[in-house]
Amino acid sequence: MITIAVANQKGGVGKTTSAINLATALAATGMRVLLVDLDPQGNASTGLGIGQSQRIKSSYDVLVGEATIDQAVVQSRVPRLDVIPATVDLSGAEIELVEFEARTHRLDRAMQAATGHWDIALIDCPPSLGLLTINAMVAADSLLVPLQCEFFALEGLSQLLSTVERIRQRFNPGLSILGVALTMYDRRNRLTDQVSADVRAVLGKVVFETVIPRNVRLSEAPSHGLPALIYDHRCSGSQAYIALAREMIGRLPVAAQAAA
What we know:
With 260 residues, the chain is an alpha/beta fold.
């Protein structure tokens, strides 16, 4: 199983929207996909139609050792897409994990012990660089960074890259950056083009060619408990995520490409 953390310490960059729709697009290719909701807000769970009554076990229980990945998994409405949901209990996990041995490796150990057969796992991280995100980075093979096309996003990116380097040095030397995905792209806004050009000038081919546009259907879909790809697969946002998933698969190891 290839594990990808979807992370950015800045909120409102389209991180959860990207996790939901990329997971759906990957499942549509035939891959068996696991989405781990590690954000206390639980938006990825809600966006995939996982109600509170279905969240009997959650990612919190997995982190504190009260449930295994296999016990916490819930089937979503999307074929071949399973979810480890999040509950509000996760909001206190940052403090509780401090008391645990190997607190940075809790998720990694749980993922390693999972017996479920998935080809790829996406971890939707909270908008911070605390213990939850560190657990995700330690467990991950690579990192996908959604980046909103605005000036302040560039400042946050440098902080994130510094954290990634520290994680490599201390915990996970194999962690790589799969790519940076530009989100909320508005062609009518000249600043959007400038930010896009600046990011590409600094990071080069690390930045995906596909950009995710501002699109109202992407915002509407979660209220229906559906990924945009199912809610309206013809909209520009859905088509962009399909293209991004295709580009993403091209960067995965050969074995994962074969599964797709």
